[in-house]
Amino acid sequence: MNYYEHTLIARQDTSPSQIKQLKEKYTKIIEGNEGSILKYENWGLMQLSYLIKKNKKGNYLHFKIEGKGSTIEELEKNEKIDKNLLRYLTVKVKKLDLETDYFRKNEDSTKK
C-alpha cells in the first residue's frame, strides 16, 4: 500500500452541509476501492492566487490516504466530473505526518 496526500478545492459558495457531503462521497469511494483515510482536515475558505472558473476563493479539503494506485485513479475519475470542485491534487509520499495541523490557528502565537 502507498501513502498519498490529496487536496480538493471546492467552489467558494459551497455550504458546510455540501462540504460534509463531499467528504462523505469521496470517503466512500476511497474505502470502496481498498483504501483508507488516515486523516482528514478541513482547511476552510482561502483566497486563490488567481481566478479559477470565476472564483476568487475556495474551500480546501485535505485527505491523507493509504491505498493503491487504482484507488486514486477511481477517485480522480469521479472528481473530474464533479461540478462543485475547482481543482484537485494528489501527491504520493513515502511517509505521512499525521501529527501536524498546518492550517490550525496557533493560540500561543497570538498571545505574544
- Any idea what the shape is? globular
Can you count the beta strands?
A: 4
The tally of helices reads 3
Strand content: 35-45%
Average pLDDT for all residues: 87
CATH topology assignment: Alpha-Beta Plaits
Structure characteristics:
112 residues, alpha+beta, Alpha-Beta Plaits, four-stranded antiparallel sheet, disordered C terminus
Q: What's the layout of helices and strands?
A:
Layout: E1 2-11, H1 16-32, E2 36-52, E3 55-67, H2 69-80, E4 85-93, H3 107-111
Antiparallel strand pairs: 1-3, 1-4, 2-3
Helix pairs in contact: 1-2
How would you summarize what this structure contains?
By secondary structure, the chain is of the alpha+beta class. It contains 3 helices and 4 strands. Helices cover 30% and strands 44% of the residues.
Outline the structure in words.
This protein is an alpha+beta fold. It has a single domain, classed as Alpha-Beta Plaits, CATH 3.30.70.60. It is built from three helices and four strands, in the order βαββαβα. The protein has helices spanning 16-32, 69-80, 107-111; strands spanning 2-11, 36-52, 55-67, 85-93. Strands 2-3-1-4 form a four-stranded antiparallel β-sheet, covered by helices on one side. Strand 2 (36-52) and strand 3 (55-67) form a beta hairpin. The radius of gyration is 15 Å and the shape is globular. Mean pLDDT is 87; it is low at 108-112.
